[in-house]
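Morning!

As promised:
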Amino acid sequence: MPEILVTVYDVLMRTYPGFLEATLVTLQLTAVGVILGTLIGLIFALMKISGSKILQGIANLYITVIRGTPLIVQIMFLYFGISEIYAMPGFWAGAIALGVHNGAYIAEIFRGAIQGVDPGQREASMSLGMNRKQTMQRIVFPQALRRSIPPLGNQFIITLKDSSLVYIIGVAEIFSLANREAAQSFQPFETFLVVALYYLALVMIFTFLLRLYENKLDVDKA
Amino acid sequence: MIIGENIHKSFGDLEVLKGVDLHVKPQEVVVLVGVSGSGKSTLLRCFNFLELINEGKITIDGHTIDPKKENLAKVRAEVGMVFQHFNLFPHKTVLENVIEAPLIVKRQKRAEAEKKGRELLEKVGLADKADVYPSKLSGGQKQRVAIARSLAMEPKVMLFDEPTSALDPELVSEVLQVMKQLAEEGMTMVVVTHEMKFAKEVADRIIMIDQGKIIESADPKTFFENPKHERTRQFIQMVE
């Protein structure tokens, strides 16, 4: 076996207890980021299609600011900015930053999906005597949700990878552990290769689960 | 049943309906014809307020509708509409499509709605398709489900907006057959269509709309054999 594979294997075996713990933190960060982001995204998507100029304006401002600034700046801002007022644990500052960041992208995903539903669906629903709210709840949203699942899945994968940026405020997720390992062991190449494998494995598992879910939806509809 | 008086409708600068008067009597079957862009579909859509008129008055079953004051959902529930592209709900089964509005709008009990829904599917010849999704149906079947879905609300009048235009030729007759049956049962119907055979056989009256105005209104025999207006004559020549 080539020398490099042996050392990578050694690093993998030596570090896996720590990395498994760190993986849990990464998954927790991702979960909070995704859930919070979905809630925020839904609210801002509804604001954007509300027809109220004020709500639309607020949503547009939010989306512009968040999409126009780097996530790492948002994390630092939240961690140090807010801690002036309230000392937030690093995990929560990071998770909330991920949620707020994702919310802007998810809002656009939802808005596109809602507006992408054939106008004929709304017309048919309304012609049957359903009011605007019933039409949205029963006809438009369920179809929009189906449409948004592939781009949402994509966004979730981005969140998983973006959670590595939270290392900057010292949360013990995969990447911050990797940094420490690399420095202590003088094996940065092997360590980061191992880290890449962790992320790759997580993304592949996630992609697989997502595909299962998409197939299930298609079967339902067919 | 439906009275339209001096109906004007514009989209931006384009005036599509320029003062239309139309009185549809109970149990009457009125067929609207005209070249594309004449305003016939728009007129139909005004009758269930998918388009709001700019000027004029619409009375449905003796009740003049002011779109600003009225609960339009309630008005629409009494006016059935069948669309060119069916617009079935793809995420619901055939039966769910049919019972959706009775459940949600009329708040019928599920068992009752399902019983009625199955009867309606039987009526349009699709009882065996109750539990499949629309994507598994042919165009003709989809349109028959759409008709059943509309009938489930027990409308006082049915509007058909080119119901067979999107169908393959061999599927047209199964839809027209259902419509003919409805007409025989005494349903009030306003139908936009290019099916002249259907118009001849089923319509009580054929109305020709040209450039946003009614230019001819006559029983089928008079309409085809002795039209008054030159444009009607040209139109008949073109379609026959």
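Chain B has one domain: 2-239.

Hope this helps with the figure draft.
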